[in-house]
Design goal:
Layout (H helix, E strand, L loop, with lengths): L4 H13 L2 H7 L4 H15 L4 E3 L4 E3 L1 H30 L3 E6 L7 H12 L4 E6 L2 H9 L5 E5 L7 E16 L9 E3 L8 E4 L4 H12 L6 E5 L2 H9 L4 E5 L11 E7 L4 E9 L6 H11 L3 H9 L1
Parallel strand pairs: 3-4, 3-5, 7-11, 8-9, 8-10
Antiparallel strand pairs: 1-2, 5-12, 6-10, 6-11, 6-12
């Protein structure tokens, strides 16, 4: 059943303002246009709602009985439309973000903090998982946005480069290499390395780049998460090769971060969204916030 909102709005305005002139003015209509709206509603209902004479305008008995319901419907629809317009103009609402766990160490908390200052009433639901899981979440509609590593292109995904995340060497202060300004990959042969997930995108990319140069590094310990590797290094169990975004100097007492060169191996972090999909106002506000951070700001977030 099609609801004639324009007719309801005209009827309520006439009833509340006591005449066609004031009602037409309040709705920015001519009296002729207002009259047509009322007549269309009455014709659809098959009932007379308003009695109009040369001297006065009055509601019929049916009109008086119907007025509270009509007023409530107009108020509900007007209120809902106003809230939607406010969401669109100010980025209000909520959205789901899928993200690789390493981004939650430093990069994402800072970004969400700035977002919360700008949009204190908004809500973000986080889904953390591997890059393949992030891609599937965005493709499947479980998340509007995703932050993942660059991978195989998908026709349904729009990808925007955020920053390059170099791999770094993490060790204790007392380690034999801790005093170096930077390391070459060859310097790490024979060390007690903590390896992170052989099927993770970061590990696959690292192994590929090293294999191209004839370099092989063997991990003594294998874990599944960057945080676990950091915990082991902090406890004095081996050293690790991790993305720079997962660790800043000063995060753990007695733990150092050293640059690795020849080659510098970087993973590329991307923002994902479904191609041609309309973002919610809250998600759009998040994208606008990220866009306001230039490339230098993104690199600073991982190089500190």
């Amino acid at each position: 059943m099609k609801i004639d909102f324009d007719g309801l709005q005209a009827f309520v305005a006439i009833a509340d303002l006591g005449g066609f002139g004031k009602a037409a003015e309040s709705l920015h209509l001519t009296q002729t246009a207002l009259t047509r709206r009322l007549q269309k509603l009455e014709g659809w209902l098959g009932l007379k709602l308003v009695e109009r004479s040369t001297r006065r305008v009055a509601l019929t008995a049916v009109g008086r009985d119907f007025l509270p319901q009509a007023r409530a419907m107009v108020q509900d629809v007007s209120g809902a439309m106003s809230r939607l317009r406010d969401m669109a103009q100010h980025g209000h609402g909520q959205f789901t973000l899928a993200c690789i766990p390493s981004m939650t160490s430093h990069v994402l908390p800072g970004l969400i903090g700035r977002y919360a200052q700008r949009h204190p009433g908004n809500h973000i639901r986080l889904l953390d998982g591997a890059s393949t899981e992030v891609r599937q979440a965005v493709l499947g509609g479980q998340a509007e946005l995703g932050i993942a590593l660059a991978g195989e292109r998908h026709a349904e995904l729009a990808e925007t480069a955020l920053f390059d995340d170099p791999l770094v060497f993490i060790c204790r202060d007392g380690h034999a290499l801790a005093s170096r300004a930077s390391l070459r990959w060859e310097d790490m042969r024979g060390l007690d390395l903590v390896g992170v997930g052989s099927f993770m995108a970061t590990r696959i990319q690292m192994d590929y780049q090293l294999a191209r140069r004839g370099i092989t590094l063997t991990a003594r310990y294998e874990v599944q998460h960057h945080a676990t590797a950091l915990n082991l290094v902090a406890a004095g169990v081996g050293c690790a090769i991790l993305p720079a975004s997962t660790f800043r100097e000063g995060d753990r007492p007695g733990v150092r971060r050293l640059a690795i060169t020849h080659p510098v191996v970087r993973r590329k972090v991307q923002l994902l969204r479904r191609r041609h999909a309309d973002l919610s106002p809250a998600a759009r506000a998040f994208v606008d916030l990220m866009a306001s951070s230039d490339a230098d700001a993104w690199q600073a977030s991982v190089s500190t």
